[in-house]
User: Fold these one by one.
Assistant:
Number 1:
Amino acid sequence: MNGCFELATSERLRLERVEGTIFDIQRYSLHDGPGLRTNVFFKGCPLRCGWCSNPESQQRPPELAVFASQCIRCGQWGDACPDGWHAQPDEHWKQNARAEYARRAALCPAGGVRWIGERRTAGDVLAEVKRDAVFYEDGGGMTLTGGEPVLQGDFAEALLRLACAECIHTAIETCGHYPWPALERLLPHLDVVLFDVKHVDNATHRAHTGVGNELILANLRRLAARSAPVIIRVPLIPGFNATVEQILALGEMLVGLDGAITRVDVLPYHTLARAKYAALARPYPWQGQAGLSDEEVESLAGELRGMGLTVTVGG
Amino acid sequence: MNQWDELRANPTLAFPPESWSEVCPDARTAEIRRRLRETPRQIDVERARYTTRSYQCTEGQPMPIRRATMLLDLAGQMSITIHDDELIVGNRSLLPRMGVIAPEGAVEWIDRELDILPTRPQDRFQVAPEVVRELREEVFPYWRGRTLEEAVAGRVPAAVAAAVAGKAFSLNQTDHAQGHILPDVPTWLRLGIGGLRAQVAAARARFDEPNPPTPFPAREGGDELPSPHRACPELVEGGGAGGEVIFYDAALIALDAAATLIRRYADLAEQMAVDAVPPRRAELQEIAGVCRWLAENPARDFREALQATWFLFVLLQIESNASSFSPGRLDQYLLPYLATDLSSGALTLPAAQAWLEYLWLKFNEVVLLRSSASARYFAGFPIGFNVVLGGQLADGKDATNPLSYMCLRAQADLGLTQPNLSIRIHRDSPQDFLRAAAAVISRGSGMPQVFNDEVIIPGQIRRGIVPQDARNYAVVGCVELSNPGLALGWSDASMFNMVRILELTLFGGADPGTGVQIGLPTPRLDQVGSLAELEAAYDAQMAHFVALMVKGCDVVDAMHAEMLSSPFLSLVIQDCIERGMDVTAGGARYNFSGVQGVQVANVADSLAAIEQAVFEEHWLSAGELLAALQANFAGRELLRQRLINRVPKYGNDDDRVDRFARRWGDRYSKLVEPYRNRRGGPYQPGFYTVSAHVPMGADVGATPDGRRAGEPLADGGLSPSAGRDRRSATAVLRSVSKLNLELASNGTLLNMKFLPAFFTGMAALDKFVLLLRGFCRLKIPHVQFNVVSAETLRQAQVCPEDYRGLVVRVAGYSAYFTELDRELQNEIISRTAFAEA
Ligand code: SF4
């Protein structure tokens, strides 16, 4: 798409060898950019949002997970893996048990014990992305997401440039928390940026994501100033930002970006990730919050629409 | 602008997006639907009674005459009714949904099952005691020794019978007429009974002169007939070469039969009108008028066209009592009549929609009585009134029209199982049409199914069908591809169990349970040194059984020509009249025999497992695998799980396994296609099973893909094994597309399951259409989408292994339904159940 230029063979080979850590390649993704897309999930993120739906994306190194629903209690071990796994959910214990569970992962017949995260080359990942090329018409393509793709800048750039050379539409979903040049270097190879904005108040942002929002908002302003194609992604999180007041403040900030930003995806909070937290033997952090009803979501989306923004629910 | 001009400018007005979520059949439609639902299914005795009496009177006469006389006797004597709520009338039995017995096909299984019909597991019927008595005393005794079933059994060579008994393949249509055909609806509408009579008389007159017959007047278009589909007359007993005059005489009797039946409906309506109160009296008088006209003349307007179409199928069913007489491209055939009525103002759009739905209801009034064994293969009384919408015109342009949208709307309004609704799509299919179709699919009836012109048309041309005819293809029954009014496709000739044959190959041609040698003696898995050697043995076994299957099918074909000539059907299949030859004898322009390879997924998964575990990674010895299979994995669950989870599986776009699907799918096609049937046309392969993957799985022991003995095979035809597709819908489509499906010209079936959320909202429908476009580009002939029900999801909680492919899609998040925690699964289930209610 962006350019659709040819790469010199030597350059292509170099890019294909760049490695990064990802935890999934999800084909037929419907909500992360235009058309049908293949999402490449990067591992490692600078934020620690309490409602995160991809907890396995937060740490960069590969980690072990035990999915109780897949376990068939194969009897190879004294205990079934999920039983021991949940017994002592503290990091230290998990470090000690690492060797044992790595062994089990290699022998688990049912995919119950799994390594999450693997090093892959950009060439290898792109080959998989290209498999769905036939579905990418009408704007579909590749979305880098995660985790935070910008944190693995060389790998992200390699993927984007390889995709551009194949005329595959490119998108990135990013949390925005990094020095500007890290994103800037990727922009020439991006057709659209899905930029997450979570809260306008710095202190609240810090309290619930682990970092303040200065860097994020500064990066967003720079992006807007360039008139780069941007879609703002706002997770609607009860107990954090899902109030009329907060959403209005957020909308005002967006409108204040000189009209460069017009489209917003609001992503209602969901608890689909609970089983993944259990698999990682981590407590589910965003406890005690009722989900939002469809009506509540619609009315919050309506507030943003009232400010002249184009809003979709669910991406 | 009149309503027709408006519609032509914007066909979506016939089914606008605002109406997608409403269900709005008119009051009459709702009433008829209620009556149909409440009518118990019963056994009809009249078809059997009058057929028996008719055959008793015609002994010694040529079979075509006997068959035509049977139809005339039935048309004149069977009881008919007009229900109080009907405007389109006619049925092939007194009450709707009756189980009709055609004793000329078989009586033994009916006699055997008569007492259990009300209680058997599938497809139950009530039977009155006096019906049982009449059948057993007056019908069955005459037929013993005279049925098709017995004749076939007597002629099938012993080696073929042994292979059938050994479950290598089935021979179908051995106990009833074969149906599976698309009659020439447009010609029937255009000529009417009188026009056809004139055509037959003219053709017959060529034989009156002392000279050799003059050539038949040139056909429209005047193309030379493609040679591959011509039977050699000497091959065909009872047809051609001297049989023409008999054929024509039978055809004229059949036309009298048609006129007789239709006239009786006119008479009945007139009588009923006398006692009826307004407004029913006027309705009955109109019915009488329409029937009186159609008894001799062609249809003039939309209503008459609908009524005439229905009479055609009633008559075909009375003659044959068979599955899958399919209407085909009704959105094309009925369009001129609709256009006339909407232009003149004789009908409004809502009125036309209601009339269309009355016909739709009629398609639900015919069910097929099957034996318990057959009902296991085709459960739920499928009768196969397949209607296909859209696609291309003969010149390659898009064929979608306002009536295509009206037919989609009829399905949305009624949600019934018939007609079996299909759409054809191609590169230039309108976005609006696909979106409307997606909206109907989202309602969860599995309809419309989707067929792909981009591969089907080239596949047909490859089989010698001229391009204009190929572009006019339609669908027979479930998914079989054929040419309206031109072909006897014989599409359900056999099901060839490739998985069973792989099982036999692993054990050196012997059944692993009994040790009985069924196939060729080839080396067992533990006697070969490489996968290539095993595949060579498999190839030999496949070739051996394909040859036997063809022999068997040829016998069945010959017996149909001898015993079940179909003079009425032959009137609506082109070239039969011209050639003076019955359709069963090879009178059609195109002749095929369709044989299905079952099931690619299990074969590919099994070979990949053997390759990886035994020959590449060596974690399993051949002997150990054979022993585990023979023991049905008893005590070897760990091994079974490894075979399931640690070996690549078809349906995930993984070339390591998909190459076996391609190799053996294509190999089966190549083995089949050189054979010619006795009607002069080619055998052609298909990949579909409808529900036969269940009984056919029961015939196969444990397999190396981790499937236990007797468990169902993969469903559909080209679908991955249940729960083995864990990647994505696009990966499934990619896997399937690796086969050369242009070869599978008899038809294929791919089932895909989706959670309802994939269809919620206009944006979701648009994304779904993108999937359809990709499907189209991948040149896969068919796909059917099932929106999973709450019930299915509950089942997924019980056996997660079979549902691992069910994905949940939310922005920036990846998960599988079976990996969610229980509470969330329950939440999705209750949301689904709520949407269903
Ligand atoms: S190895 Fe796998 S199947 Fe066996 S107990 Fe552990 S998780 Fe369960």
Number 2:
Amino acid sequence: MLKIENLKASLEEEDKQILKGIDLEIGEGEVHAIMGPNGSGKSTLSYVLSGKGGYVVDGGSASLDGADLLDMEPEERAAEGLFLAFQYPVEIPGVGNMTFLRTAVNSQRKMRGEEELNAAEFLKLVRARAKDLKIDADMLKRPVNVGFSGGEKKRNEILQMAMLEPKMCILDETDSGLDVDAMKLVSEGVNAMRDGKRSFLVITHYQRLLDHIKPDVVHIMAAGKIIKSGGPELALQVENEGYADLLNEVA
Amino acid sequence: MALAANNIDATEALIAAYPAPSGEGKWASDARVRALTTLRQSGAPVRRDEYWKFTNPARLLEPAKPAAILEADEVPVFEDTDKLLVVFVDGVFRADLSDDLTMEGVEIETLASAMSKDIHWAADIYGVLEANGQNPVSRPLAALNTAVATEGLVIHVTGKASKPIALRYIRSGADTDVMVHNVIKLDAGADLTLLESGPAAARFNSSLEVEIADSAALHHVRTQGRDHERLAATHMFARLGKESRFKSFTVTVNGVLTRNEAVIEFTGDDAFATVSGASAGDGAYHHDDTVFVTHDALNCESRQVFKKVLRNGATGVFQGKILVPSHAQKTDGYQIAQGMLLEDDCTFLAKPELEIYADDVICSHGSTCGAVDETALFYLTSRGVPKDQAQDMLVLAFMDESIQEIEDTALADEIRERLGGWVERHKD
Ligand SMILES: Nc1ncnc2c1ncn2[C@@H]1O[C@H](COP(=O)(O)OP(=O)(O)OP(=O)(O)O)[C@@H](O)[C@H]1O
Ligand SMILES: [Mg+2]
């Protein structure tokens, strides 16, 4: 599904390399988690994969089902099936949430040569998905993320994911800012989308989320590299002991 | 201060360019004489004048040059609105193309008819609000309009108008020079929506004087455009009584030079006024909003919300002032002017001014200018929205704050749709 080889990337504005050779392979239907200290480059990895400007790829490759991601525009990556749930979802005053969602869904369908959803079909679908995530109709009418609480923004990301039905989902700290109930709700939303084919990369600081969304592999990222990979027990180790020992191990 | 010799010549040439009205009632000729005196004292506008620094008035002073007429590729503006339609072709009222000028709660008369009478209520407004608005900043093109305009309507609103009055300014001649002057008087508690649309002329000078009595309301939505080479100088003078409301919105797309001045004066307590606009220009486009709001009463609220989208070297100007004398306590004044520059070679010039002498007021102003927000653009594209479409969404979203000032949602939606069309036609 997602294959990253020796990916190196720097900031465009400063001469500073953030990703220093990432290797990561996520197979079909797998859930991988990335943990790591603040500033280790987790969000940067998600941005470089989804095509945000401001970064320069210094080397390496990233592909989704064999298609070279790094060569594509962000919207093309989305149409290929890549999705990023943002650590900090963006507020866009003046753009209605519904208009945005419908445009996004239909743009992707169009790019893939599929039939667009008409207004009624779309509305039916979005209502059902919103209900599952306990997002009320009023929130859908508001401008994108404007006036949403931290947790509402995260739920809105998952709603977008549910509507767009991507094949590779990256969740960047979707659990931060969620209350206990919302965390359960969001995890259920994610688990409902696990169909044996769709893959997930879950970036988190807390083992708690991984109790709900059970990962197949856990990676530890530090200073722009993946320094250790293992099973779910690695997340428990981080939870109990912090990163110090792990960092010393590699040093 | 004496005028420079070349300005005396320019001023006389400006006056001579229009036929001198004659055979009118006394009130009308008195108003004309007053306006001519004002104009000869201030002289034609020049670049050196404080409020003409950002906009060169030279082209507004020359006789109209031939300007291309844009083919009608859009449905007429306000087509779906139930309205009383009044048509002017090249600035001349056309009864044959207009609806019957009768409506319950409203008395409508042509300016020429009102001016032929010796006594008319319009004498208290015509040229009077304009004269008030000449201080502290002179507005020579408005004085000129008062001195020579013979076309327009005088509208007396006595109750709640059952539908909007829509003035449509059709342009047929290439080098038309058109002057229109409308006067509106709203009695206490009266309510009217006034719509204006159409390119009007190669060079258009329009003046609107509005007296809004206690608890009355005037809603005004105007579209200017879409001819590229046309010039326009417009003035709007409004005087607001106690608890009255005035909402005016202008959308301007295209036009090589547009100067829209608004002069708002609160004379009664607890009144509300908003003057707002969205403008969009590509290439040879210079658009100027100059607004002057005076709070001469207690607890009034004024809003100025202007958004300008600029492409390919286009220029946007905003000059807005809120004046709050010491007795105008509890004033709430809001002012925002923002430019969105889609290319680096565009210019947005803003001069927001607050002049406040009262101590118990809330006044805020802001002015920003920048490109499309990259973070928002990435968010939209990362969801699969193609970049150009995402940019269009953000451009329209940017203008939306001003459109939200329009009270009628159907009219606001029509404006959104038209701006959507403009954005669609003006791409890289
Ligand atoms: N645009 C930028 N300008 C300057 N520094 C940046 C920029 N983007 C990322 N960085 C730096 O790159 C490093 C990695 O940042 P990144 O956001 O990827 O970390 P992270 O692992 O996601 O951290 P966190 O756990 O706090 O979310 C940090 O040192 C950060 O300050
Ligand atoms: Mg991060």
